[in-house]
Every structure is written in structure tokens, then in C-alpha cells.
Amino acid sequence: PEVTVSPEVTAAPQATPSPVVTTPPAATSAPTVKPATPAPMVTVGQVKNLKLKENKTNAITISWSSVSNASGYEVTYTKNNRMYSKKVTGTSYTLNGLSAGTTYSFTVKAYRMSNKNYIYGKSSSNLITTTKPAATKVTASKTDTDSTVLSYKKVTGADIYRIQQYKNKKWVTIASTSSTKVTVEKLAQGTTYQFRVQAYRVVDRKVVYGQYSNVVKVTTQVKKVSPSVKAGTKKATVSWKKASGVTGYELYVSANKSKGFKKKATIKANQTKITVSNLQVKKTYYFKMRAYKVVGGKKVYSSYSKVVSTKIK
């Protein structure tokens, strides 16, 4: 049988899909990022006008000008050859427990707290100062008719001692010396004087005065007289030159050259002789005198004169 073959059907070519074109979205501009503003730098000013406010024998007080933005101040000082620091909030500081007549140095710098940190300013200039020398104790000795000797104890840290005398209702410096003993001369007889002593030292060309000593009162002696004696009948006449500035005289008589003298008379200042009567014939008598001046209600005596003698007729 005849086979009929159907014609081959060729499939239509499949359409190639068009490529998908994706349009990218319009570019969005990136946000502008500003750099962070740095925190302002904290600065602290320098301490100025550091100066001594007060010094004592055992303490020094310093002060300085304030710094506008400071939280406080740090004081640095030397003591016993060591350095110490102390924080304070005010503009002064007192350092206690110091030695008299001793030199100390100080500097101060301001600080400010920032994020729990100390921000310091520049230190001040260095202040060197000295505690006052202590008071000495003065005594008087070897007081004569026109002079006296003042002695006083050496003061630690002192270079010089100035001696002052009270004159015309004020204290006047009469001498300055490095010695611990001085003789004051050209004084008037039978006169009371007052003296005191002050130690001091020089630091950086500045004088640091110490405390004043006690006041010592001195009364000079009265000049002694030089009598002579002349015997008479049952009597003796004692004479002398008038002494200036005295209140009077006292006459002493004895039958022994070295002992037994008794006051025979008190004589006025303008008198220059006296006669002692009722004496034993052919007996030797001995005489001595002393002048006196009343000062402050009390008698200030001269030393005794030499002893003179005569044999009664």
C-alpha cells in the first residue's frame, strides 16, 4: 500500500525577547557631614604680685592677685630643705610651725578643673622671705656714774643687733652691732635710763626685724666725793668739794679704820663741810662719805669715798 507522507511542518522560529533595560534611579546627593568643632582649649593665667603679707617668728603669710578663671591655687614652698605643695582656694596662705630667723621660698600657680583634670597656669615668680628673729633677753651690769654694759643672748638667724634708748618719749637707736655686748657711755650721773635690743637680719637687701627684747632700766651711780678732815679740840671738821646734781651726802664715823662705821649725819646738797663734836682727846677717828640723789622717790648712792682720819687734840 502506498504510504502517503505528510509534508514536515517546520515550527516558526521563536521570537527572541527584547532585553530589559532598567533605568537606574536618579542619583541622590550624599549628605554633607561637617567636621566636629573641637572643644576650646582651657588656659589659666599666671599668678602675679606674689608678696609677703605678714611674717612672725613662727609663721609667714603670703598673698597674690586673683586669676580670673582659676578654680584654685597651688602653693609650693621649701621647708627643712624639702619641697611641699598645698592647694588653696583663696588668694593668701599662711605657713605655720616655722623656725625664727629662717629663710623660706614660695611660688604659686593657678589651676582650673576640666573633665576632672587639673589645668595649671604658669608659676609666679619666686618669693624668698624670712621669719622674724626671736626676741633676745637683755641685762645690764657694771653700771657706773656715766656708763653701763648691756649684754644679751645670741639670736638664731640674726646678723645685727640694734640698741635703743628711750628718749623724749620715744625709742631712739643709739647703736648697731654684731656683738652680744655693748657699753653705753656719756650718761648722766644718778639718772635712770631705759634700753631695749632688737635683732635683725638682711635678706635680699631687705631688713627683717625681730621682736623687741625686754626693757631694762638702769640708774647710773652718783659721783663719789673726796673729803678731807682737820682735827680740833674735841672735834673734827670734814670738808669736800660740792658735787653737781646730787640731793645730799651722808657722813660715817668709826674709831676703827676697817669696820664699825655708823652714819653720823645726813647733809644737804649745798653744804661743803661739817663739824663733828664731842670726840675723845688724843683718839684717832676715821671718816668716810657718800653722795646720793633721789630718783623716783628712792636714794641712788655713790660709792663710798676713801677713808680719811685724824687724831683729836
Structure summary:
The protein is mainly β. It is built from no helices and 24 strands. The termini are far apart.
Structure characteristics:
single chain, 313 residues, mainly beta, five-stranded antiparallel β-sheet, disordered N terminus
What does the model show?
The chain is mostly beta strands and 313 residues long. The protein is built from no helices and 24 strands. Strands 3, 4, 6, 7 and 8 form a five-stranded antiparallel β-sheet that branches. Strands 11, 12, 14, 15 and 16 form a five-stranded antiparallel β-sheet that branches. Strands 19, 20, 22, 23 and 24 form a five-stranded antiparallel β-sheet that branches. A hairpin with a 2-residue loop joins strand 3 and strand 4. The N terminus is likely disordered.
Write the layout of secondary structure elements.
Elements: E1 51-55, E2 59-63, E3 72-79, E4 82-88, E5 92-96, E6 103-114, E7 117-120, E8 127-130, E9 138-141, E10 148-152, E11 160-167, E12 170-177, E13 181-184, E14 192-203, E15 206-212, E16 216-219, E17 228-232, E18 235-239, E19 248-254, E20 262-268, E21 273-276, E22 284-295, E23 298-301, E24 308-311
Largest sheet: 5 strands, antiparallel
What's the total number of strands? Answer: 24
Figure out the total of helices: 0
The portion of residues forming beta strands comes to over 45%
How far apart lie the N and C ends? 227 Å
Regions with little confidence, pLDDT below 50 for 5+ residues = 1-7
Q: What is the percent of helical residues?
A: under 10%
Backbone CA Rg: 52 Å
Q: On the 0-100 scale, what is the average pLDDT? A: 89
Assembly of the depicted chains: single chain
The helix-strand sequence is EEEEEEEEEEEEEEEEEEEEEEEE
Shape: rod-shaped
* SS-based class: mainly beta
